[in-house]
Amino acid sequence: MEKTGFKIRTLGDPVLRKKSTQLKKVTLEDKELLSKMARLMYDNEGVGLAAPQLGINAAMIVADIGKGLYKLVNPKIVKAQGSQINKEGCLSVPGICIKVRRANKVKIEALDENGEPVAIEAEGLLACVFQHEIDHLNGKLIVDYAPLLEKIKIAKIIKELKKKAKDEKLAESEKKSCKLSCQSL
Asked: Cα separation of 76 and 109, whole Å?
């Protein structure tokens, strides 16, 4: 498989905490970037990836839960309903899983890779993935959802991750994310 030239940024990288810039239009370069993002997501066995995770300050995400690839620009949630709790992992926070309460159904409006407006209704796992990736566009990570006691428990792991990420010494086994599991409420 072709190399993308990008690496996934991990917790501690300030780019992950910035609000992403909305694109005025989708260019050929943006379209190529979305394809590279998808390749990187698949290579890392992820189900979603946002541009900030590659150090790019642009409101772009890709997602695929095994039912087809979505490449979205400027995605926003326009409707949310229901509730589910998900044990979520993140390629930018490897080795840590956090239970997160999210909407069970969402309606997303965005531009597709050709710059055309799309509206997508998603539920269950896909709704979870969209919300997770849109969080990235707003500088929010799964660790922000952890209750205080859990934050205390994972503080040492996070500190080690930040140091290893800064030194670029994450072992391959440490780069893996936990798998998502969802329960509707």
From this structure: 6
Domain ranges within the chain, ordered by starting residue: 14-184
Question: So what's the pLDDT on residue 4?
Answer: 53
Tell me the CATH architecture of domain 14-184: Alpha-Beta Complex (3.90)
Are 150 and 30 contacting, i.e. CB atoms less than 8 angstroms apart? no
Among 45, 116, 133, 172, the active-site one is 133
pLDDT at 1: 36
Distance of alpha carbon 81 from alpha carbon 174, whole angstroms: 35
**Do residues 16 and 50 make contact, with C-beta atoms less than 8 angstroms apart?**
no
Closest CA to 41 of 32, 30, 28, 50: 50
Do 102 and 124 meet the contact criterion of CB atoms below 8 Å apart?
A: no
Task: Determine whether 29 is an active site residue.
Answer: no
Consecutive sets of 10 residues in the chain, 185 residues long: mean pLDDT of each?
A: 70 92 97 97 95 97 97 98 94 90 98 98 97 98 90 82 66 47 40
